[in-house]
Amino acid sequence: MSTQSQRSPTTEPMLVGPAVWAVRQPATFMLVQLVTALVVFVVTTGWLWLQTESVFQDRIVQALPQLAGSFIGGLVFVLALTFWLVHQQRERYRIACFRPFLGLLIVFALLHILLGQAWRASGAVLGAHVFPLLQQLQGYSLWAALYACLYSVTGAILSCGFPLWAVLRFARDRSLRLTADEPAPVGGRQIACAIALWVFAFYLKVAGALLVALPATDVGPDDWLYVFIFGLPLFAITWAAVQFRLPRDVARFMADRVLLTSAIIFLLWLGLVIASVMGVRLFGRGEPSDALVMLLYVLLMAAFWPLSRWSLRWCYPGVAHDR
To answer: How far is CA 311 from CA 1, 183, 299, in A?
Structure first.
């Protein structure tokens, strides 16, 4: 019996191979997620601007960099979650091609919008009860930062992860599946992209929490965008370091190891950042010069190259090698 006739639940032949769908479908889900988030952000911000008086309109314009920076931080996290979850479900249930694909994209976008709006509406009510309690605690800014980070992550899981899992669960029995002995290779660049996205998402979450924890007088609206811009090199360096360490095709995506590798890379790098800051404060005289800050920034960004390669060797033994 041929491979195509063994497919379940349909015997319709595929026009492209599983390796091509492994690239196209996760990327398409990410694109839908990106477009949906941008539309919602523009519409809600524009509607708020139109519904307020001119004095408050000026304040919205001034706060736009902060709003954009906060939005980007959340967007990168949901993009990483979307890309990772599609690959995880595809590998776990040996899906060659999710179907009906267009319907899945439409339903996912609609559910993401509805659940996202519901979560934001509930967040206003929840915040009105939580923040008065946090203000009674010592170290209010730290607790507020932790709450903001937890609220953002929970919202991403409920408004993005849950609807995506639901539509993929619905499509599971309707999709083209691989046979037991049919390989399902994943490109090394797919794994590299997933790891780099998660590391970048972790960085933006921690940096955003730090901006919330700092006194308001020390944080300007533009600082939220600077966090994103200065973090772009870590995404590129991590992606390149992982991609050049992996072969062109990998037998499995191994979603759990993708998360583990990303966490190890970021935690090692965060340790270097803390050690650098402590070293400057202990041995420096007064405020560090701009030249020293720039040197530390370059060195810390460059550290992602060896950290990524070492972490990959630990988490993907027998797979990672130079090429």
So the answer is: 43, 26, 18
